[in-house]
Amino acid sequence: MAKYVMALDAGTTSNRCILFNEKGEICSMAQKEFRQFFPNPGWVEHDANEIWSSMLGVSVEAMNMIVAAASDIAAIGITNQRETTIVWDKETGEPVYNAIVWQCRRTAKDVKALIKTAQKVGYDMEVLQAVESVNEKQKSILFNKLMKHFNGDINGKTIAIWGLAFKPETDDMREAPALVLIDKIISVGASVKVYDPIAMPECKRRIGDKVVYCKDMYEAVVDVDTLLLVTEWKEFRMPSLEVLNKTMKNKVIIDGRNIYDAKEMVESGFDYYKIG
């Protein structure tokens, strides 16, 4: 009789497999990151074969941890945190090019140009306009959650932001959600402390001293009312909850990348919010 449910998490920087028993308890978990390619500023690509091999690898690893066979798996669920475009060669079964990841901005200007061109000739490209609208609304999700928690008033509060770059492993901030977030927070009377492993010089070039730039992730959370996770750098994945508990004024964490365990956060005394 099958004993486990397998959950496959297709993330933006890694794949993860979790096996649950009939009580919903985690029995094993395996995770593996895959490479990110940035051929040009704002472009993001993955190796399509590596995505597949890493997902297969973590599935086997998680099963081996508890000596589970394929016949022990009752069901498989897939959670997709990204939209990735891949074109496969029908005859060879190989990808014709790297996977184009949803964060890739190479077509952003083309979408805007198509919308404007269509408007000039009296035609509304409703699908593209909807895509552009959704993209802009996504940049306000964390701010809206922040305002909702504090009943619409964050005047005088201090907010920490972990991650400024549009994507980990780069300092590219063109159309970065962090820039929109910072402007919105400051506009309603709150102050902002930020930390990013490499993008702070680029941020300062763009917005100057509108925010406080911190030397590390823990300095950024000292005496803050809320921590906003914006970019999923590796060093943010396993923070010391003990340090956060001791240094934050209000224990509020808004996880924009869904990288933390909600149950663990709540049990550690945090008001925790994620996307979705």
Question: Would you kindly provide a written description of the structure presented here, covering whatever features stand out?
Answer:
The chain has 276 residues and is an alpha/beta fold. Helices cover 31% and strands 21% of the residues. It is built from eight helices and twelve strands. The chain has helices spanning 48-65, 108-120, 126-138, 141-149, 177-187, 200-207, 241-247, 262-267; strands spanning 4-10, 14-20, 26-33, 45-46, 73-80, 99-100, 158-162, 191-195, 212-213, 226-229, 252-255, 271-274. The strands form three sheets. A six-stranded parallel beta sheet has the order 9-8-7-10-11-12. A four-stranded mixed beta sheet has the order 3-2-1-5. Strand 10, helix 7 (241-247) and strand 11 form a beta-alpha-beta unit. The chain is globular, with a radius of gyration of 21 Å. 29% of the residues are buried. The mean pLDDT is 90.
Key terms:
276 residues, alpha/beta, six-stranded parallel sheet, four-stranded mixed sheet
Provide a compact summary of the structure:
With 276 residues, this protein is an alpha/beta fold. The protein has helices at residues 48-65, 108-120, 126-138, 141-149, 177-187, 200-207, 241-247, 262-267; strands at residues 4-10, 14-20, 26-33, 45-46, 73-80, 99-100, 158-162, 191-195, 212-213, 226-229, 252-255, 271-274.
Shape: globular
Q: Runs with pLDDT <50, length 5+?
A: none
- Helical segment count: 8
Q: Approximately how much helix is present in the residues? A: 25-40%
Radius of gyration: 21 Å
Total DSSP E strands: 12
- Proportion of strand residues: 15-25%
Biggest β-sheet: strands ordered side by side in the sheet: 9-8-7-10-11-12
Distance between the termini: 34 Å
Average pLDDT figure: 90
Main pleated sheet = 6 strands, parallel
